[in-house]
Design brief:
With 124 residues, this protein is mainly alpha-helical. The protein has one domain (4-113). The protein has helices at residues 4-18, 22-34, 41-46, 48-83, 88-97, 99-113. α1 crosses α4 (48-83) and α2 (22-34) packs antiparallel against α4. The longest helix has 36 residues, at 48-83. The radius of gyration is 19 Å and the shape is elongated. Mean pLDDT is 88; it is low at 117-124.
Length: 124
Amino acid sequence: MLTDEEVLDLLAKGFRKRITPGREIAARAVANGLGGRDGDVEWIKANFSTLVEQVQADAYEEYKQAERIAGADTIAEVFIGLLGGRSAEETVRLFGTHFFALDRFFLGLTQGRRPREGSVKYFV
């Protein structure tokens, strides 16, 4: 049986492999916010504060959706691989056995969404 550290490592690697890069999310959010006005410097200046708020909100929503999909796919891949045809009860117990790995995985995702100066994100 794998240790919690090994399960956490599988979860983290699987998530990093699947999550949409932040730069792609940010670029789409900026493009959506500008709505084809990327060359209109006066419009950007006049609407800068609103644009920044909208881009941030759009990027955050898109990231949460990407995170939801990447997380679900990663958990399925890791735990289906560990199950080996076990019963429903054994499946639930397996999740319990690796409670701390799951807890640290979810904590890492939560902390990865919080802006912190000078920090390095564990998962992204």
